[in-house]
Amino acid sequence: MSTRSRITATALAAAVGMSALAACGAPGGGADAKTVTLVSHDSFNISKSVLSAFEKESGYKVRILKGGDAGKAVNQAILSKGNPQGDVFFGIDNTLLSRGLHEGLFSPYRAKGLADVPAGLQLDKGAHRVTPLDYGDICVNYDRGYFARHKTAPPKTFDDLLKPRYKGMLVTENSATSSPGLAFQLGTIAKYGQDGWQSYWKKLKANGVEVVDGWEQAYYERFTGSAAGKRKGDKPLVVSYASSPPAEVLGKKPAPKEAPTGVATGTCFRQIEFGGLLKGARNEKGGKALLDFLLSKKFQQDVPLQMFVNPAREDAAVPELFTKYGTRIDQPTTLPPGTITENREQWIKQWSSLVLK
Amino acid sequence: MVLARSEVVRGRRPRPVRGTAARLGLMAVPLAFFALFFAYPVAAIVGRGLKDGGRWQLGRFGSVLSDPDIVHVLWFTVWQAAASTALTLLIALPGAYVFARFDFPGKQLLRAVVAVPFVLPTVVVGSAFLALAGRGGLLDELWGLRLDTSVWAILLAHVFFNYAVVVRTVGGLWAQLDPRQEEAARMLGAGRFAAWRRVTLPALGPAVAAAALMVFLFTFTSFGVVQILGGPTFATLEVEIYRQTAEFLDLPTAAVLTMVQFAAVLGVLALHAWTVRRRETALRLVPASQTAHRPRGRGQWTLLWGTLAVITVLLIVPLLVLVERSFAGPDGYGAVFYTSLRSAGNADSTFAVAPLDALWNSLAYGAAATAIALVVGGLAAAALTLPRLGRGPSGRTALISRFVRGFDALLMLPLGVSAVTVGFGFLISLDTPPLDLRASWWLVPLAQALVGVPFVVRTMLPVLRAVDGRLREAAAVLGASPWRVWREVDLPMVRRALLIAAGFAFAVSLGEFGATVFIARPDQPTLPVAVARLLGRAGELNYGQAMALSTLLMVVCAGALLVLERLRPLDHSGEF
């Protein structure tokens, strides 16, 4: 008897504790006019000093929420549409853009400084539901050392990759599970058209392209140019980012003359990242201030070393790591966001049955 | 006199009713917890997928399940889980015997080390395993043997992960089986094998079945291992749910697959509950310390060395390769990746996180998750161990006892539901004040506690069941107050189990990745999240730092498990 009442009392005490705990969480979910919340993906970064400068100037406290990789973060935003987790979303790119616009995720706002963003990046011109904030290219990377040792020139274009001398040298990622893999496929679709890309991939397959599931495996395990892989890989060509060569130099002392890897400039697909004011934002005023800040020179100049992409503003200074070791891509391929959204799933399926089976 | 009064009390109120009330009282908190943080979010996301304009679209089941791609995924999921389970049993059962029956130096340490993979996040395990069996890995260098992107890599990684489950579940019981029973059978003329088959095997059977079912459950829902090692051609149901949800936002398909996985997991859990109940049949158990001895004779030494060799190659070497890589700097071995974690040029970034900070975040989340798991799991275990219900086969008690058994299985369900389903569920269901937890610090420990509770329950149950109710009654009869009964009778017996449960919940929380990566705040990444972020970037420095953080995580996990080994009571076998 007494045991029982003791147990019941414990249960009650615990129940009270649990509800107290739930209550504890509540204030975190509420919003006040002094806090502005940025929702983004895992790769979002910012210098602490730049962030605190904004907080001091504007009087807002910035809260950052991340939701996995880019695709997952966008889908999270779509699921919580109308009752968003925050005020501003950062990081919807051109491969997902029209899905977000179609769902009506964003309220229009013209951020200050848009005039300094090149027209080619402004994919929602006129409507201003989203603001271009940065861009990066996905390209075939090559191992300089390998091609120097073998006295061969590295490939430059998509067509080059079909040449017999590069047979069996390229490793790429699964389009269905990896965003660089998908971007590379989209690049070939942009280049060879909806009718031609499949025959390109047939030839690429015949030339020994290898597919692995994720970027980490492709880059660290298979690519000969990755220092972290202790150069045990067997593929001198890999689908990666245009910013990978500067990253290879990071932390090297003394700094080398040039990056150990290079970029095949004719194989690039451009990803542009946008930010926007979320519809239903609780702190719209703060959100607008935050968007202005994201397009400000101060933040834009912070972007390269934090996220390894290029600033959207033309007048933003780019650090030496990028200018010295990076490669400027002048003519990347790209596709209209609407076309990508319409065909995405079908293209991935076609690619899978063509290349994997 | 006192005795008489207690008789009176017992006479006035029939026992079953009181038992039921107390049981329901205890179950209230765990039920509320699971309803709020598991059932409701999962139902919300599944409902979103299966409902269209307020009407259920059950026709979806037919179209999804007849898709040849999906059929292929289903087939592969079942096939690889069965194969992984068989292989794990084959490799780990001798290990269970060795740990149960032999004494050798370093046994406690080794038992802790063997359990480390189980609580490590799959990102870390994936890279460790690739370092061993992948291209340019150790086996490749030595014998040109490569297993990446073959199904063997998946199977062996599953053995690596689940070895400890078998050793602990089966070995724990084996250590307590009285060897004299087998000896008696041999005295009576049975051969060595016949004696083992007739005496030991039947006693171990339910434990082996329970371990096999747990391994099957873990491998059936395998995600990270298959993603990292499987190459593009292999996908489990869990991977497919992730892809359909996170990549395509095809909620209807994801919902159908979630329901299929749910049904499969429920089936496995029902079988598991049944075998566990069978295990509770009377066995002659003795303290493990009495059954273990130094190996005798050539056969036993061979078995011991063989097991040690298997453990070394399969479990320890991948972990050591991880450590090796964390020290292999650009200019030879050194602690450069460790020191650079703090002093690198990007220290001003919200990305860069000092190892001590990530460690501290992990510990804080883990501690909170452990506290929640202990309250929820402890109360649940207590509810499940109250005295059996009245013998009268009235319809009501039968119903309640069935409900209690269902509750038992319910507690295990979070182990079988994908993190992305739970995560997206949180997002769309816990979104209105006062329960808008989407940005709350508590979200991470709550999600981690979901995974920790099953471990607490499984550890506490056997111990709580073993406390003899008559001891309490005797103490009460002798005039002890309820508080004193609890302090002097229950607490000493339960304290150790509670600590072990806490340790396990803590270690599992430390390693939890799927849900944490979804909801961890950027300024407070846990160690696994920080590792994954670093692995997602090119360059030797990022990779080396990822290895350094992984090593740190591994050391913390091993430390926690080693402490557990010291606390491990000699007279009980946990179910993990």
Q: Which helices and strands, and how do they pair?
A:
The complex is a heterodimer of chains A (357) and B (576).
Chain A: H1 2-29, E1 35-40, H2 48-58, E2 61-66, H3 70-79, E3 88-93, H4 97-102, E4 106-107, E5 131-143, H5 144-149, E6 170-173, H6 179-206, E7 210-212, H7 215-222, E8 237-241, H8 244-249, E9 261-263, E10 269-278, H9 284-294, H10 297-307, E11 310-311, H11 320-325, H12 337-356
Helix pairs in contact in A: 6-12
Chain B: H1 2-12, H2 15-50, E1 51-52, E2 55-56, H3 59-65, H4 68-101, H5 107-119, H6 122-133, H7 138-143, H8 151-174, H9 179-187, H10 192-220, H11 224-229, H12 237-247, H13 251-279, H14 288-291, H15 297-327, E3 328-329, E4 332-333, H16 336-343, H17 355-385, H18 395-410, H19 419-429, H20 443-466, H21 469-477, H22 482-511, H23 514-519, H24 527-535, H25 540-567
Task: Note down, in words, how this protein is organized.
The complex is a heterodimer of chains A (357) and B (576). Helix content of chain A is 42%, strand content 17%. Chain A has 357 residues and is α/β, with parallel strands linked by helices. In chain A, strands 1, 2, 3, 4, 5, 6, 7, 8, 9, 10 and 11 form an eleven-stranded mixed beta sheet that branches. In chain A, strand 1, helix 2 and strand 2 form a beta-alpha-beta unit. In chain A, helix 6 packs across helix 12 (337-356). The longest helix of chain A is centred in the N-terminal third of the chain and has 28 residues, at 2-29. Mean pLDDT of chain A is 87; it is low at 1-30. Chain B has 576 residues and is an all-alpha fold. Chain B is 75% helix and 1% strand. A two-stranded antiparallel ribbon of chain B has the order 1-2. Chain B has a two-stranded antiparallel sheet with strand order 3-4. In chain B, helix 3 packs across helix 13 (251-279), helix 16 (336-343) crosses helix 25 (540-567) and helix 17 (355-385) crosses helix 20. The longest helix of chain B has 36 residues, at 15-50. Chain B is globular. Residues 1-17, 389-393 and 570-576 of chain B have low confidence and may be disordered. At the A-B interface, helix 1, helix 2, strand 2, helix 3 and helix 7 of A face helix 2, helix 12, helix 17, helix 19 and helix 22 of B.
